[in-house]
Amino acid sequence: MIYRRCKPNEGTYNALAALCDEHGNDKVREAFYIIQSLSKRQRCCTHDFYKSVITSLCRKGNTFAAFRLLCEMTRCGFEPDSHTYSALIRGLCNEGMFGGAMEVLSIMEESGLCKPTVDNFNAMILGFCKIRRTDLALEVFEMMVERRRMPNETTYVIVVEGIAHEGELELAREVLEELRSRKVVGQNAVDRIVMQFNLDFD
């Protein structure tokens, strides 16, 4: 690719990320040098590669390695975006490290470099809902609103599904009805939740 002046695309980054997953940090560094070489010759962006590797590591339950890689990459000038932070939050939640995930949100807020987005808060809310702690998810929801990040349809769907997963089907139905009446959840989402949990819904 380097000698033929081929530009890397998403497939290139994903293939290198998969290689890193299989063979650990040595291959991460090797892939790092390959991408840097491509970047220098063709002025292409390496951000997608870094983001892809971190996301992939987190998805595979190797969040510690993802954080180590992030530290190494930031020294080389990489600036994580909200998507990268969402991957880290999801990874920490999946590994049961909810305190660490909340700490990521706090660091984002305090540093001012990349303020938490709705998607970052959604990742945290989903993490709590998956372990049937909708009470904690709602605390994050309140924090999000206090910080003037307006919930989107995904936020509301996560909360309703969290309530339903805890067996509170009547409450989930009532909340869903209210959200539909306020037109913050679309009909497609309503239909999917009703079918998923067999809610008695008019």
From TrEMBL:
Record keyword Repeat present: yes
Short name of any one Pfam family annotated for the protein: PPR_2
InterPro entries: Mito_RNA-Proc/Resp, PPR_rpt, TPR-like_helical_dom_sf
One function term, GO molecular function aspect: mRNA binding
Keywords of the record: Repeat
Family classification: Belongs to the PPR family. P subfamily.
NCBIfam families found in the cross-reference section: PPR
Listed name of the protein: Pentatricopeptide repeat-containing protein
